[in-house]
Design goal:
The protein has 186 residues and is α+β, with helices and mostly antiparallel strands. It has a single domain, classed as tt1808, chain A (Alpha-Beta Complex). It contains 4 helices and 12 strands. The protein has helices spanning 12-16, 40-59, 116-129, 177-181, and strands at 24-28, 31-35, 63-67, 72-75, 78-80, 84-88, 104-110, 134-139, 144-148, 156-158, 161-164, 173-176. A 6-stranded mixed sheet has the order 3-6-7-8-9-10, with helices on both faces. A 4-stranded antiparallel sheet has the order 2-1-5-4, covered by helices on one side. A two-stranded antiparallel ribbon has the order 11-12. A hairpin with an 8-residue loop joins β11 (161-164) and β12. The longest helix is centred in the N-terminal third of the chain and has 20 residues, at 40-59. Mean pLDDT is 91; it is low at 1-5.
Length: 186
């Protein structure tokens, strides 16, 4: 990830003024992160997760399952584009624009060589400060998920079955990671 020269403090407004060139732009505490298009495998894993999570979210009216690109603005110096996420149902209906998104129940980032630093060291503390209920860092190469919650100081590392229960009112969803990652060597 690179940062354009001559600019030391980036804002959400500045990022929105950049040309639509196929890259993803994020501002993490004033620092610009530029990410190229993800790999096919990266997208395939996220598609499998989406297909598993979306029906659960809809069944219990928890919110809306969405994917990047999406400018989620926590502040003028914090604009993120999570790979996959669940917008919380606040009881006011589906948001009409990204600026209407107030709370995220779940954020999922799939690691790649160009995003690992930002995902682990920059975005994680932001998601924790914003009280995102769960943040999953999906390590495709290692075939595991790091689960972070707002008050965690280290992640829970999951290698077999991931369980998500955003509300005690509903049964958890259980996700077999072998199903998400596909056959070994895939």
């Amino acid at each position: 990830m690179g940062m354009p020269a001559q600019q030391s403090e980036w804002t959400a407004e500045m990022v929105r003024a950049l040309p639509d060139d196929g890259n993803r732009y994020e501002v993490l505490d004033g620092e610009l992160f530029v990410t190229p298009a993800p790999s096919y495998r990266h997208q395939a894993v996220l598609a499998r997760l989406y297909d598993l999570i979306r029906p659960y979210v809809e069944r219990y009216s928890l919110g809306w399952t969405r994917w990047s690109p999406a400018d989620i603005e926590f502040s003028a110096k914090r604009v993120v584009q999570p790979d996959l996420f669940v917008v919380a149902n606040e009881g006011t209906g589906e948001p009409r624009s990204w600026t209407d998104v107030r709370r995220l129940l779940l954020v999922i980032e799939a690691l790649s060589p160009t995003t690992a630093r930002a995902d682990r060291l920059k975005k994680r503390p932001i998601y924790q400060e914003q009280r995102v209920s769960e943040y999953w860092i999906v390590d495709i190469d290692s075939r595991l998920v790091e689960r972070w919650r707002p008050d965690d100081v280290r992640p829970e590392v999951i290698a077999d079955t991931l369980e998500w229960q955003p509300s005690r009112e509903f049964a958890p969803i259980r996700i077999a990671l072998d199903e998400v990652f596909g056959p070994v060597g895939d």
